[in-house]
Structure to design on (881 residues):
């Protein structure tokens, strides 16, 4: 039984445990609530709230997830009360003196984390917004001020937006939760960057990963277990192609759940792992699902439901349901749901999984042959504006009043200012625009014949709060066109001064040429008196000047034709 | 008395219906767009029989609309899916034509691949529903090659099939092509696989034909006539072709079952090329005037057939 209580206006859940007391305070705010240019704000607040507790002699921890943030601990009643009260006090009065130190710690945490195969999936599915933000670095840290943080706390870390859960026999004596009052925040709307599914993208990972979105249900949770058994049997036991074969089912808080499957692969067997993976998916999609797998998965879940600790164990998930407004079932209701799951239900889940699928395939492979379309790597449209050719190669940059397009040989990349999630800016003038659809556009001033006024246009059009200042780059990391390969430019992009230069040179050539001709004629026809030989010098100099003046015309003309 | 003039040898035919009467029934059923009749031809056939008939159905140009209709009406039907998938592969391959990769235009390649992708999607479903369908898996091995899905993926498909059908010679031949250098394989793997297939199958089974085929492919791959001649005269090659023959077509237990014309044709050619004329003659005698496009296409089709047959009979004696 889970009891519903109230502590200082915070909904509180209590369930018995035979072990030590545990407790957590969960807020309905996470990275999905942020924007790219403020990314990291929730995590930074989580760190600041825990920072003064760093040397406590009991286990404390914080978690910042896409849709929630949780502070939790385990220990004596007094320790737990002290911890939770302190967290709330620090949230209400952030220790902003530690702001810069904590920012550095977060940057270190990011750079030292191991990149996982699944890290890129959110941005491919959702773009550079809401549930896609967990793929990105915490780029907002640099610009975040104490005021930004206080604003975010006032919105998100309120007693109405929190749930307390305790595994133990009672609410610890003396526990206070001094949180400001606010409103419960709904789960952010989920964006999609995929015009079509099933889709696939290519990654450097040595694994095949399937990401899908299915309706939250007991059948979907069971299906996840069945899929894992099928992958293990097919890719590991029978063919020895994979070592790790796992699946994960995770409710998203909006009535849907993320269902993922992963199979790793040796570098030289990746093609076969992908093939085997596709065949496992096909087997379930056509409904050839083993009754034994269904029975085994249900039995395993029933075992969990039968343990004495089941209520204590499900407190964190239960708290999330309270926060997101999703129903919570009793253990008996869970049992009944589980029992009712049929092979036909699993077949339905398989269909949902496939129709929403996003498949990650190792580099060098594709999945179009298996019916997956390539997820977009280019934009479908371009902006109007002035086109600046690249100093090298066939690319060009088009800067307009609505946005910027890079016209490359593989297709255009367009980021409109209104849809620009963030723009990274470097002191050397380089810019990187990131569209809300996750399209990335590099503007390297060294690589394009940009008009000096072009960059300021971009800077002015992208709202200032989306600019992210990046540290200076060392000269060797700034790209430079190689001198060996200067391509001919297209006539349409000639600078105006070329024509002017040709015209002015032309007039000068005509004038000087005419004078030279005249002097030559006069000197040749009339002859020179002794002492007037210098006139021949004038003739030679005149013709020399004509040739020199004609030279720019010839050179510019040849460049045009080239 | 004047000795009777020997009757001229009948011209060779590579028509499958000449060797297998059921192919004729299948063609009639396909031409009539009579699905129950098509099903009847396939009823009670073993894996070799089915794969042979599916291959023969692929030669029938213009049946795609009919098969598409049947498949759309019965998307879970094993035979409809296999036949449609195979038809799409063959149509694609006709576009690609018999040229090697560098001679195929970009547009041809795109159409070829589009056909193969459509075929693959149909056959993924067939093998998902009927994982023991040897004909469907055999097609998918060929698809892995055409779609360039990789050596390991082709091998995985073969292994999947071999779990149910450990000695399915047409599937082995499909994988052997993938293992050849022309499809980014290498000779070591190609020969190892061919020998493994020959050894694993019981004596008298057709599978040793893989060894003969591997030597044939190796011979064709040499750049100069001098190298080719030297290869066919080398004792290990001559001996291994003979041993392969003794394990299959020359073995007393060998029976002319589905696919036998291809097996004997390959040996007839390889015995001829290695100048083992009596053995070659015995295969030509067994063939009568029958043959298959593969391997005879490699030696000018009927012309090569006639030439080698005449030589074999002259030097090896007509039995």
């Amino acid at each position: 039984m889970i009891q519903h209580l109230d502590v200082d206006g915070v909904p509180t859940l209590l369930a018995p445990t035979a072990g030590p007391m545990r407790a957590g305070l969960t807020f309905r705010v996470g990275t999905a609530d942020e924007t790219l240019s403020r990314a990291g704000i929730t995590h930074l607040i989580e760190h600041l709230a825990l920072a003064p507790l760093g040397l406590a002699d009991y286990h404390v921890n914080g978690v910042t997830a896409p849709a929630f943030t949780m502070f939790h601990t385990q220990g004596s009643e007094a320790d737990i009360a002290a911890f939770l009260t302190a967290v709330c006090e620090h949230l209400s009065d952030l220790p902003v003196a530690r702001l810069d130190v904590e920012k550095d710690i977060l940057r270190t945490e990011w750079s030292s984390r191991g990149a996982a195969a699944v890290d890129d999936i959110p941005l491919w599915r959702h773009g550079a917004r809401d549930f896609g933000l967990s793929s990105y670095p915490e780029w907002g840290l640099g610009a975040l001020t104490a005021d930004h943080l206080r604003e975010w706390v006032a919105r998100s870390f309120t007693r109405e937006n929190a749930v307390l859960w305790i595994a133990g026999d009672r609410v610890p004596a003396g526990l206070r939760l001094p949180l400001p009052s606010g409103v419960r925040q709904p789960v952010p709307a989920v964006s999609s960057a995929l015009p079509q599914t099933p889709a696939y993208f290519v990654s450097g990972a040595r694994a095949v990963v399937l990401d899908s979105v299915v309706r939250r249900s007991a059948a979907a949770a069971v299906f996840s277990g069945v899929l894992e058994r099928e992958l293990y049997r097919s890719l590991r036991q029978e063919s020895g192609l994979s070592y790790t074969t796992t699946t994960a089912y995770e409710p998203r808080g909006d009535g849907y759940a993320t269902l993922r499957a992963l199979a790793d692969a040796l570098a030289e067997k990746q093609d076969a792992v992908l093939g085997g993976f596709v065949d496992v998916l096909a087997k379930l999609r056509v409904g050839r699902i083993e009754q034994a797998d269904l029975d085994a998965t249900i039995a395993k879940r029933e075992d969990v439901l039968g343990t004495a600790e089941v209520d204590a164990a499900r407190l964190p998930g239960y708290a999330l349901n309270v926060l997101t407004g999703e129903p919570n079932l009793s253990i008996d209701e869970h049992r009944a749901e589980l029992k009712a799951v049929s092979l036909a239900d699993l077949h339905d889940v398989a269909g949902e999984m496939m129709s929403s699928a996003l498949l990650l395939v190792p580099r060098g492979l594709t999945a179009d042959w298996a019916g997956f379309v390539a997820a977009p790597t280019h934009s479908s449209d371009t902006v109007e504006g002035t086109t600046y050719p690249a100093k090298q190669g066939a690319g060009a940059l088009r800067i307009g009043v609505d946005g910027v397009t890079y016209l490359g040989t593989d297709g255009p990349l367009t980021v409109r200012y209104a849809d620009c999630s963030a723009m990274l800016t470097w002191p050397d003038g380089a810019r990187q625009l990131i569209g809300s659809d996750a399209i990335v556009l590099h503007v390297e001033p060294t690589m394009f014949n940009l008009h000096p006024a072009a960059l300021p246009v971009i800077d002015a059009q992208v709202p200032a709060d989306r600019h992210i200042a990046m540290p200076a780059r060392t000269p060797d990391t700034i790209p430079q066109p190689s001198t060996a390969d200067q391509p001919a430019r297209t006539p349409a992009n000639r600078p105006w001064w070329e024509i002017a230069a040709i015209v002015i040179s032309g007039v000068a050539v005509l004038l000087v040429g005419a004078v030279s001709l005249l002097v030559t004629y006069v000197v040749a026809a009339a002859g020179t008196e002794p002492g007037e030989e210098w006139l021949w010098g004038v003739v030679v100099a005149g013709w020399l000047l004509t040739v020199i003046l004609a030279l720019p015309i010839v050179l510019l003309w040849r460049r045009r034709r080239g | 008395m004047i000795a009777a003039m020997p009757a001229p040898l009948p011209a060779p035919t590579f028509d499958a219906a000449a060797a297998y009467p059921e192919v004729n029934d299948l063609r009639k059923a396909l031409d009539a767009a009579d699905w129950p009749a098509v099903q009847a031809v396939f009823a009670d056939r073993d894996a070799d029989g089915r794969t042979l008939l599916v291959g023969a159905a692929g030669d029938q140009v213009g049946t795609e609309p009919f098969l598409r209709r049947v498949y759309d009406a019965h998307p879970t039907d094993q035979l409809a899916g296999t036949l449609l998938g195979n038809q799409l592969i063959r149509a694609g391959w006709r576009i690609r034509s018999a040229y090697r990769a560098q001679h195929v235009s970009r547009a041809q390649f795109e159409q070829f691949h589009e056909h193969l992708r459509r075929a693959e999607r149909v056959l993924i479903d067939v093998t998902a529903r009927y994982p023991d369908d040897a004909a469907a898996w055999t097609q998918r091995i060929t698809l892995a090659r055409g779609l360039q899905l990789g050596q390991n993926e082709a091998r995985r498909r073969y292994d999947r099939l071999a779990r149910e059908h450990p000695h399915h010679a047409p599937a082995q031949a499909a994988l052997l092509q993938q293992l050849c250098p022309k499809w980014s394989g290498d000779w070591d793997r190609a020969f190892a696989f061919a020998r493994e297939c020959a050894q694993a199958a019981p004596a008298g089974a057709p599978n040793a034909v893989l060894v003969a085929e591997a030597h044939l492919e190796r011979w064709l791959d040499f750049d100069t006539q001098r190298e080719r001649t030297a290869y066919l005269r080398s004792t290990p090659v001559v001996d291994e072709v003979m041993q392969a023959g003794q394990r299959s077509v020359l073995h007393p237990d060998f029976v002319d079952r589905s696919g036998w014309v291809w097996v004997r044709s390959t040996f007839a050619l390889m015995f001829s090329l290695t100048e083992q004329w009596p053995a070659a003659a015995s295969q030509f005698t067994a063939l009568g005037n029958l043959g298959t496009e593969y391997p005879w296409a490699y030696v000018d089709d009927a012309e090569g057939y006639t030439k080698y047959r005449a030589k074999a009979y002259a030097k090896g004696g007509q039995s």
Notes: Chain B touches chain A through 25 residues (CB under 8 Å). Residues 106-129 of chain B form the longest helix (24 residues).
